[in-house]
Amino acid sequence: MAFMSISVAPSNAGGASGLHCVRNYTGLRPSTGLRLFNAGISIKRSSRSLVVIRASDTGEVSLKKTGLSIEECEAAVVAGNGPEAPPATPKAAAPAGTPLVQSLPLKRRPRRNRKSPALRASFQETYLTPANLVYPLFIHEGEEDTPIGAMPGCYRLGWRHGLLEEVSKARDFGVNSIVLFPKVPDALKSPIGDEAYNENGLVPRAIRLLKHKYPDLVIYTDVALDPYSSDGHDGIVREDGVIMNDETVHQLCKQAVAQARAGADVVSPSDMMDGRVRAIRAALDAERFEDVSIMSYTAKYASGFYGPFREALDSNPRFGDKKTYQMNPANYREALIETQADEAEGADILLVKPGLPYLDVVRLLRDNSSLPIAAYQVSGEYSMIKAAGVLKMIDEEKVMMESLMCLRRAGADMILTYFALQAARCLCGEKR
Predict the structure, then answer these.
(1) What is the band of 297 on the pLDDT scale with cuts at 50, 70, 90?
(2) Any transmembrane segments, and where (predicted)?
């Protein structure tokens, strides 16, 4: 339907002068005092003004300035000679055959708050920004970046070059937090994982390089023995296959101090040994690293979603499994025991791993702790979305963003995700 345009000009002038304004008045009701005739007729209001109404096929309303003062405009309105608005937009027609029914007697219609993009944005409860994302990066001793077969789009980055380039890309889109995972040469692995606290090892060298290049970069580290263990477990393995708790914690403390000395901002024990947060906090404080934070893997489950990660680090256990120290996926209340222990021992951040399959646990920690909550969208979650996207079963970008928003909605303040750079580009408006 054509809209109406209204021109208001002094009747003794040949035309209106001044700025030409175009404005959309869709939805305003016309005054009952205005009589509409065929398009193009003029209605004489007074000796001072002339109102001309014209039909517009473009949907725009043209109002020319009259040159009247504010007082004259107000006087014209008070006298009933003000300009009229165009007619209201008619209600859209329903499809043929739509039944005619009486309106349901509903006091509340939640859809009213969803009817336009502007309203939906106004009432959105959860937001995701690049600042909520932590980018896990795999590093190795090589010069070249090597693709990880089970994780499309992810690489083992050369610590001298590829790592710096990937961090630079992430920072360009607002991701300024990373976590490092090393692929350690087999020749340096041992049953007690002593390479973990070599201060000239791969991770400390990478930290020092990154801090030299990007002093404000927030660097998280992984505190666990599995990348350094010849047995592939997070702790020292006894002859009978038992993971030794207290002896492992002793090694973890030395690892955390070595990482802090290199410049790590946050050390992240992922081993699930009992008492390790208290011991690491004491070790850091004893070395005057009181400002180094601890992000504890509070609820880390013995999950099947870790497979691609273990390929990336070549850290599969040689025997046994990790169920004697990682949590049972069937357990929910047990996460509260771990939460209370980590809080009491001095953790600064609590993490749930994996993420999406454990949204209920994320919410449990959020409701029972005032500490920041992190969630790890692990390699299996990432690879499934990537694979389904390649097969055109899903829209990869939409599912990626929805999955991250779900983690935020469940209560995660921050998300460790291999999608960090891709999601940040999407959030910043870059086309896929």
Answers:
(1) very high
(2) none
